[in-house]
Specification:
Pfam families: Phosphonate-bd (PF12974). The protein has 283 residues and is of the alpha/beta class. The protein has two domains: 138 residues, Cypl, domain I (D-Maltodextrin-Binding Protein, domain 2, 3-Layer(aba) Sandwich); 96 residues, D-Maltodextrin-Binding Protein, domain 2, CATH 3.40.190. The protein has twelve helices and 13 strands. The strands form three sheets. A six-stranded mixed sheet has the order 2-1-3-12-4-13, with helices on both faces. A five-stranded mixed sheet has the order 8-7-9-6-10. A two-stranded antiparallel ribbon has the order 5-11. Helix 3 runs antiparallel to helix 11. The protein is globular. The N and C termini lie far apart (92 Å).
Length: 283
């Protein structure tokens, strides 16, 4: 009798295990192939902007990773150094890259990048860079001798100075004070921390509303041509994932968390690249 009971128990266990395994296989068969592929390495979206001074890269990465995790195995990789960023692109596969239009024009062919979106801020997708000074004695000829505040990288700031100063070689002598935000660059003129600032026309408009007295005391010494805001580019060898990334980034402004992440980049929307944008990128 005892042997009979043990035999029955073994048979029950075997049937239970068989049913459990069959259920697992059935569930697995119903999972879309895209989810099975999530065990592969995450798809990388890289970010570096010479025009934007991000204060907290850890927070930026966390917020973007959290948002992107809704759509699959994606990884957001921000950089605060151009050389490190380009070294990463050389040795790793990044399906999408977010970078300044100035930088994009310089590396697009090297990394086979195709632009798909441009950032939008206050319904504008382009901006002008300006050199401003508070003291009447500071001119375009003498600005190379004074402290210049900027929220952009030193490399980008000096390149803008080369474009705007009468003597391009004078940009190499410029003394740059790097500050966290563009409004800080303008406010530094009021506090006497700098004698000139390289910023955007958009920031000047913000200053007019925030500090009318300081705004009226500033002189615009030079103004650049319009340049596009942040560019989203897809690697040409990314395959079908390029379209997937395009779709999920395009949806960002429509979702509260996506909108919040765009604001961290100083934007409020994306717009598809059109023919006129391509012409600006070629200049």
């Amino acid at each position: 009798m005892e042997v009979f009971i043990h035999t029955r128990l073994r048979n029950v266990r075997k049937r239970t295990v068989a049913i459990f395994l069959a259920a697992i296989c059935s569930i697995s068969a119903g999972i879309p192939r895209s989810l099975h592929s999530q065990n592969t390495a995450p798809i990388t979206i890289s970010f570096y902007s010479s025009e934007t001074n991000i204060n907290n890269f850890k927070s930026l990465k966390f917020e973007f990773d959290t948002y992107l995790s809704q759509f699959g195995e994606y990884k957001f990789q921000p950089f605060n150094n151009r050389d490190t960023f380009e070294t990463y692109l050389s040795g790793h596969k990044s399906c999408a890259v977010l970078l300044s239009s100035w930088h994009f024009a310089r590396i697009r062919e090297t990394y086979h990048l195709k632009p798909i979106f441009v950032g939008v801020r206050n319904q504008q997708s382009s901006q002008k860079t300006v050199i401003v000074a508070k003291e009447s004695g500071v001119t375009l000829d003498s600005v190379k001798n004074v402290q210049i505040a900027s929220a952009s990288s030193i490399e980008y700031t000096k390149n803008m100075l080369k474009e705007l100063l009468p003597d391009a070689s004078a940009a190499d002598q410029a003394k740059i004070l790097t500050v966290p935000k563009e409004l800080d660059a303008l406010m530094s003129l009021g506090f006497g921390m700098a004698k000139a600032a390289v910023t955007t026309a958009h920031s000047l408009e913000q200053l007019q509303a925030m500090n009318p007295a300081l705004y009226k005391s500033l002189n615009v010494l030079a103004e650049s041509k319009e340049s596009l805001l942040l560019i989203v580019a897809i690697s040409e060898d990314c395959g079908d994932q390029g379209q997937n990334i395009s779709n999920l980034l395009q949806e960002m402004p429509a979702q509260p968390t996506g909108k919040k992440n765009l604001l961290m980049l100083g934007l409020d929307n994306w717009k598809p690249i059109d023919a006129s944008d391509l012409l600006k990128l070629e200049k």
